[in-house]
Design goal:
By secondary structure, the protein is of the alpha/beta class. The chain is built from eight helices and seven strands, in the order βαβαβαβαβαβααβα.
C-alpha cells in the first residue's frame, strides 16, 4: 500500500515525536508499504523518509520547485517529483496514495489531512484517513470532532471513519480493516 504521510517540517520540542516518526518509517518499510510524502529532508518529514530508506523501503517525495530550490529536498529517496506549487503537490500525492495519515505537524499538516478526509466524506475516494496521535498530540482536536457531532456539523459515520492510533502498528492495522462509509448525499 502507498501511504501518504503528512507531518511537520519541524521535529517539535519533544523527542517522542521523532521516535514516532522513526517507528512509522520502520513499520512502513517492514510492512512492504511505500511512503508518499512532501519530499523534504527537514523535520518529521525527513525523519520518517530516512527511516523508510534505512529499513529497505521505498519513499516517494512530491515537492514544489520553490522548496527544492531552497535545498530542503531529501536526496536519498526512491523517487522525487518536482511540481509547480502546493496544489499540484496535494493532487499528485492524492493520486499516488492509497491511505493518508497525519502525524504531528502544524497548519499545513492539518490542511492536507482535512482535504483528504473531506474528499473521502464526499465520495471522491474511499481511502482511509488517520491521525497518528503521538503522546496525545491530537487529543484536543479529536475532542473537537466530537463537539462537531454534538452540534450536528459532522455526522457520526464521518467521525468514525477516521483511523486513530498512538502507534504506527495500530494505524496500519486500521488501514487493513478500513471500510469506507457511504458518501454524503447518496
Amino acid at each position: 500500500m502507498k501511504v501518504a504521510v503528512f507531518c511537520g517540517s519541524s521535529t517539535g520540542n519533544d523527542p517522542v515525536f521523532e521516535e514516532g516518526a522513526r517507528a512509522m518509517g520502520q513499520a512502513l518499510a517492514e510492512g512492504g508499504h511505500t511512503l508518499v510524502y512532501g519530499g523534504g529532508k527537514v523535520g518529521l518529514m525527513g525523519v520518517v523518509a530516512s527511516a523508510v530508506m534505512a529499513h529497505g523501503g521505498e519513499a516517494i517525495g512530491v515537492i514544489p520547485r520553490m522548496l527544492k530550490e531552497r535545498e530542503v529536498a531529501h536526496d536519498g529517496l526512491t523517487e522525487l517529483y518536482v511540481v509547480d506549487d502546493m496544489h499540484e503537490r496535494k493532487a499528485r500525492m492524492n493520486s499516488l496514495a492509497q491511505a493518508f495519515v497525519a502525524m504531528p505537524g502544524g497548519p499545513g499538516t492539518l490542511e492536507e489531512i482535512f482535504e483528504a478526509w473531506t474528499w473521502a466524506q464526499l465520495g471522491y475516494h474511499e481511502k482511509p484517513c488517520a491521525f497518528y496521535n503521538i503522546a496525545g498530540y491530537y487529543d484536543r482536536l479529536l475532542g473537537f470532532f466530537d463537539t462537531m457531532c454534538q452540534h450536528a456539523f459532522l455526522k457520526e459515520p464521518y467521525r468514525d471513519m477516521l483511523v486513530v492510533g498512538d502507534n504506527a502498528a495500530e494505524i496500519l492495522a486500521g488501514f487493513r480493516h478500513y471500510k469506507s462509509p457511504q458518501a454524503k448525499w447518496r
